[in-house]
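Following up on my earlier thread - several people asked me to post the actual chain instead of describing it. Fair enough. Here it is, all 665 residues.
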Amino acid sequence: MNAAALALLPANLAAQDDPVEQDDTPIIVVTGEGLETTPAAPAYDTQVIDREVILGTGSGRIEDALSTVAGFQQFRRSDSRSSNPSAQGATLRALGGNATSRALVLLDGVPMADPFFGFIPYPAIAPERLSSARVTRGGGSGPFGAGALAGTIELASADARTLGPYGGHVYVNGRGESESSAHLAGDLGSGFGVVSARWDRGKGFYTTPEADRVDATVRAAYDSWSVEARGVAPIGDTIELQARGLVYDDRRTLRFAGADSSSSGQDASLRLVGRGTWEFDALAYLQARNFTNVVISSTRFVPVLDQRATPSTGLGGKIELRPPVGEAHVLRLGLDYRRSEGELYETALSAFTGEVRERRNAGGTNTDLGLFAENDFLLGALTLTAGARLDRYTIRDGFYIARDPEGALLAEDSFADRSGWEPSFRGGALYEAGAGISLRAAAYMGLRLPTLNELYRPFVVFPVTTLANDALENERLEGFEVGLDVAPHEVIRIGLTAFDNRVRDAVANVTLDPVTRQRRNIEAIHARGIEATTRIGMGSWGFDGSLAYTDARALQEGAAFDGNRPSQTPAWVGSASVRYSFSQSGLVALTLRRVGKQYEDDLESDVLPAVTTLDAFARIPVTTRFSIVLRGENLTDATIVTRNQGGSVDLGTPRTLWAGVRFGL
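Reply from S.P.:
Thanks for posting it. Predicted structure:
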């Protein structure tokens, strides 16, 4: 019987009318979670975001909740209502420079990155479905470690008990936009099931400054929905089966009429978790995704490129085994596999006649098979950990075809297949010095394959074209860190981490001329910095603070950008949230966030000024199951510059006020 079952046992016995009638039938408790984190997990720089923080943001977006971790960033400052989906990569520690995810994002153990692009479909990840988010900064070599170059973000779904039998919310803002969700949850035999849906829609705000608007300028309209079904059932006393299905669709318009994009997907996964003497976690998943995008000329305001379809498929799984090796050890052995396959279909159009100039088709297949082993060794106050991973990767079936309007062949390239073995290692130590003081140190390596998008798909943010590069090499990370955690009282916890990370052969968007860039491997991105976290809980009051300073440099001897900061990476990032809880479920929260100066490009020619924003959240209970909710984004109406290309500027979310109702637990 596991710890959760033991904890519930007294309550179950107390509920019996007649103790004499009790029997020895095992109490089976399903959790819907994976295996517990290992004892040495705190040896790495880790921050946990609990459900109350996830739900208490001004925007109601998961990317906003993740931004409470200093060092987390997307390629641009826009959230998933007013940016192109392909710019929504997740990275940590200022190891950015392009829009691809350098951090591994998992939902119930399943990698969520788009198989073709590597972006994260944030609109499909509804915060109200989650119980927590665990963010580990620094490279990882465990399951799916080939994607954890900058760290790992583990999202865990809430169970039926947390969600309650039913619930939902409906919010509207001052622009008439709406956010709505609903769920039903209940027992399925000895397990549980949850069905949930969410719909966000709105006309959006103008991302173009008022002085630059033209007749073709439109608001950043958005319309996204998702439906998820999840079931968890026990198989015997110590094994549970978890199943999840997700369908979503997300549509946006940016800057100009007709500049429409869409992202859609259908995901399914099965997971078998065993918590017996031999613990195990077996997972399989399948993803079908698609992306479309229309590029509008910023001078003639007509379509110049129709990326009409980018279908892709992701499939994979893992098997992790934890054999019984004694109380002083926790041993993890396993393998994982990922396959990403996709292609693009796009049509280039004349800005003068609207006629087709060229039709293009490109794509390929990437695979990764990883073997990993990791052992935690407990020596009283000292915990040691060491792990190794060996990846067999392939980059194959790459092609590019271009035809004229009549179908005549203009170009046809078949790119050479590549494959190889890549080892990576990590190790750490955690020492409990007493008096609430913990010391930790870690060193690690990491690996990331270039995405199909980086290899084969050029893109345009008019007037700049960024070219693909089929010859891109894998990125490799080497890093180390030391940290101090202090908990002088049970309600106070302070963490401080100093780190040094270097990504070799980093993929960056390199400027070739004023209107052309290309994805290229550069010598390295070197990031050194300090991260600080604070958590205080005193009765009804709570405080969470996070601050990061990173000295990040793009290195390429002889290049014009050598020594510059990678594009889109600030030196300073910080956030501070204060919360007050009242009544049974009442909550008021304020979040102050500061993002330092960034540069649009590798040459540091266009600046994105530093910005400070203030968000608010209030939940006022009316009854035990009904609350009024008020939210505010960017309450000071700060100007958030999200893009600056030669003075052509995009803006982020202005002051936005929300009001609505929440029902359920």
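The chain has one domain: 31-208+228-664. That should answer part of your original question.
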